[in-house]
Automatic annotation (TrEMBL):
SUPFAM superfamilies: Immunoglobulin (SSF48726). Residues 2-86 form the Ig-like domain. This is OBSCN protein. Its main location: cytoplasm. GO terms for cellular component: cytoplasm. It comes from Acrocephalus arundinaceus. Keywords: Cytoplasm, Disulfide bond, Phosphoprotein. It holds the Pfam family I-set. The keyword Protein biosynthesis does not apply. It is found in: Cytoplasm.
């Protein structure tokens, strides 16, 4: 299985409280396994507050809904040994 790398990393975002924010990370291969999103070192699950999806097979997205002050911090995307932060 080829090593999946990050082609296009996360970009920093500034949003107002109550807004949604979306982070995108493009990887080199489709159907990447061993993918993880974190906020402040806490692993995120797909739920009503965090929408995790994959577009076109290679673009992994994380949308944080109705952000609050508690959501301030570092977002990390990891695929295998590679990470990107914003």
């Amino acid at each position: 299985e080829p090593d999946v790398t990050i082609v296009s990393g996360l970009k920093d975002a500034v949003v107002s409280e109550g807004d949604d924010v979306t982070f995108r990370c493009q990887v080199s291969h489709e159907n990447a396994r061993d993918v993880e999103w974190k906020l402040q070192d806490v692993a995120l699950q797909n739920n009503e507050m965090n929408e995790i999806s994959v577009e076109k097979g290679k673009i992994h997205t994380l949308t944080l809904r109705k952000v609050t002050e508690q959501d301030v911090g570092t977002v990390t995307f990891r695929v295998g040994p590679h990470t990107s932060t914003a």
